[in-house]
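Need tokens for this chain, all 448 residues.
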Amino acid sequence: MTEAPAQHTPAPAELLRAALEKIVFFEWRLSELAAELSAAQSRCASAELERARSEDQARAAHEAARSARMQLADLEAERARLASLLSRPAHGATVDMHALEAERGRSARLQAELDDARRQLQHGRSERERWLGEMIEQSRSGGEEPAALAQFISELRGEVIALRERQQRCDELLARAGVEAPPPAGTLPLPAPPREAEPVVEARKLWAEGRLASAGTAISAPRDAGAAARALADQCVRNLSSGDPGRREQAARHLLAMPQPSAAPLLANALAAEKDAKARAKMARALAACGAEGAADIVAGLQAVSEPPLVRLAAVEALCAISARARPALEIAAQDPAAGVRRRAAALAAAEGFSDLLARFSSDADASVRAAAEAACREAPAPAPEPLRDISHEAVLAVQSAIFGLSEAELGDRLGLPEQEAASIASRLLSARRIGRRGKRLVAAEGS
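Here are the structure tokens for all 448 residues:
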């Protein structure tokens, strides 16, 4: 039987990268859920308004029906009374013709009032249809009535004032009852997550359960947890064409954190069409991280003066991450019209070790740029000291190569040192018996 290959034990760095992929994925999913929650809340508010409007209409219809029933009852009573009068037999002089004429006149007046009410209803219906038509045309054309907007603002302000007064009354009642008022929503401190004693041990358990995977194993094992990183990358690529500049900026930021070479062409197309400065800056840095030499050429073109300062600043930072592009980018940034870009370029020049460019920034016309260059000079790491020469070894070789030996002065000339330092070195070598002395001259030690 062939032995099974040993299970790969991930290193802490792989575990950290896999955990970071999970964190970025969950951040994106949280933003998606928050957007869905906001949309659901807006739909709920609209439905609540529609329900209130329907209830108002139902109450109005109920009142109208009740009024119509009362009028119908009155008319029925009047019709019954008239019918009873007409059904009585004529008794000659006992019939009151004046009462009959009065009733007929009253009936005519009631009929006229009914016709007038019908005409008013028809007129109100036509006015309502005309008003609705005007409102629909106005909404289609995109115009808004200033009076309606002012009314809406007034109603909204009234609701806010009413809510504030209600909150104040609640606080007063709680204070009278001796109960501490709860903190406002959103200010409650989040409970601190329990810290594991051994994070690496817990991460190894998650790895063994298949819940973590590194970026390298995600390609060979499409069913493991590395699929979350690919799903996030696909979602970020789709969000590059979103209508919300915030979503486009977030997508570019995620691609910058986890560069995907396959996303470089789409990033280039999105960057060419992007108008928002923040999203454009993030796309420039993400393109430099995901793309190759061609992407660096595109990012270098963003240092033009026509670009916003934020985009030019992002282009300098992205190009300084490429060693071959750092110096040309900083030379262009040294002539940038924005002082903020030059300040950042001074710090990058100090980090890259370009002393000549740093001297140029130190003599800049802007005082803030000069101060940034001086601070960068102070905070820049000191250059590594050159390794000390082995003077003792060179002194021994110089003495061994001399035929008749050397004096301390001649040894100093050979080593390029003062005579006192040469004499000190010679005394150490004599005590270590690496050289000897014959009279006043230094010679090779016996047996060397």
